[in-house]
Specification:
The protein has 323 residues and is an alpha/beta fold. It is built from 11 helices and 13 strands. Helix 2 crosses helix 8, helix 3 runs parallel beside helix 4 and helix 5 packs across helix 11. It is globular. The N terminus is likely disordered.
């Protein structure tokens, strides 16, 4: 896959919590110069003891694919579970953008997070994010599709019919909201942004979905899992929207921690993810609306599960540039 111009993603801000990694004996691949990857798993190694942190209060942030305040109550019981497992207070931090979430971990202000699919590589390489879990059904099914949606009464039948139309994307870091569909439209349907269609950025998946339902946009590229949850809780009328393209399955939100937490604390947090009891919680009530339903945490590795996303980024010319 190729696009006309490379898309370089960067995160502005100062380096506040990890010293410069020594060049000697420090392989790092695509990781920022502050990190090392001696075990070859493509994520930052835990630093020396003097650089490890053990915060009194742990900060958690969920990816802003929708209004983050919607999820404060949803995650209450889960964060209480982590609090009991670690003996520490855990606070929900409502971030408004992918860049803000990445910068918060990069600066040492965020310790536990769920990053969306497209932002995960940048979080890993620039912020030292260590992902280890993903939501799945009880039978182990996981992931989501990228859908291109249009108003239900639109004459469009396939993405090829979007020539001359206004197409909404979410943010440049989003896999389903921008990177995958922009490459798809160019390579498979021969539609170039600005020339064959007018691109616009809505900021979030829910904005794009509501924009199509209200006919503010002729079409939008979105994560179907977000649409299914919004329909499930009555936030949008599913009858006002129709899908004209569905992708193969991508991995969904990656959950994990900052790489520089003390190993004892990191283990307690990781164990808490897999010991959480979903039954009767707001988390299950919200995420079982997804397709497939998300009702458990399963272990993942960035190297394996994000391989397809890294290939999409390569095809799109994305560089994990930390500024």
């Amino acid at each position: 896959m190729r696009v006309a111009a490379a898309l370089a993603l960067g995160v502005a801000g100062s380096v506040g919590f990890v010293g410069q990694a020594q060049a000697q004996d420090c392989p790092r691949g695509a990781l920022d110069a502050r990190f090392c990857d001696r075990d070859g798993d493509m994520v930052a190694d835990t630093p020396d003891a003097k650089q490890q942190v053990d915060p009194n209060v742990l900060i958690f942030a969920y990816t802003p694919v929708e209004d983050p305040e919607v999820y404060r109550k949803v995650y209450d019981s889960f964060l209480d579970h982590i609090s009991k497992a670690t003996g520490k207070k855990v606070q929900f931090f409502a971030v408004q953008s992918n860049a803000a979430q990445i910068e918060a971990m990069r600066a040492g202000r965020l310790h536990i997070a769920g990053y969306n699919t497209g932002a995960t590589p940048l979080a890993v390489n620039c912020a030292g994010f260590y992902p280890f879990a993903m939501m799945a059904s009880k039978s182990g099914e996981y992931g989501y599709t990228m859908d291109i949606i249009v108003p239900a009464d639109s004459p469009a039948k396939t993405p090829a019919d979007l020539k001359g139309k206004k197409v909404a994307f979410t943010a440049p870091t989003s896999n389903s909201g921008y990177k995958a569909p922009s490459v798809l439209l160019k390579t498979e349907f021969k539609l170039e942004a600005e020339k064959d269609y007018t691109p616009t950025f809505s900021g979030k998946h829910d904005n794009s979905i509501l924009g199509v339902a209200n006919k503010d946009y002729d079409a939008a590229a979105i994560a179907y899992s977000v649409l299914s949850r919004m329909v499930g809780r009555g936030a949008v009328d599913g009858n006002k929207i129709r899908s004209i393209y569905k992708s193969d399955v991508f991995p969904t939100t990656a959950y994990g921690i900052a790489h520089n937490l003390k190993p004892e604390l990191a283990k307690k947090i990781k164990d808490a993810f897999f010991s959480f009891k979903w039954e009767g919680t707001e988390l299950l009530k919200e995420y079982q609306k997804s397709q497939p339903p998300q009702e458990s945490y399963i272990p993942i590795t960035y190297k394996q599960h994000w391989d397809v996303i890294r290939k999409i980024d390569t095809g799109a010319g994305v560089k994990y540039a930390c500024k």
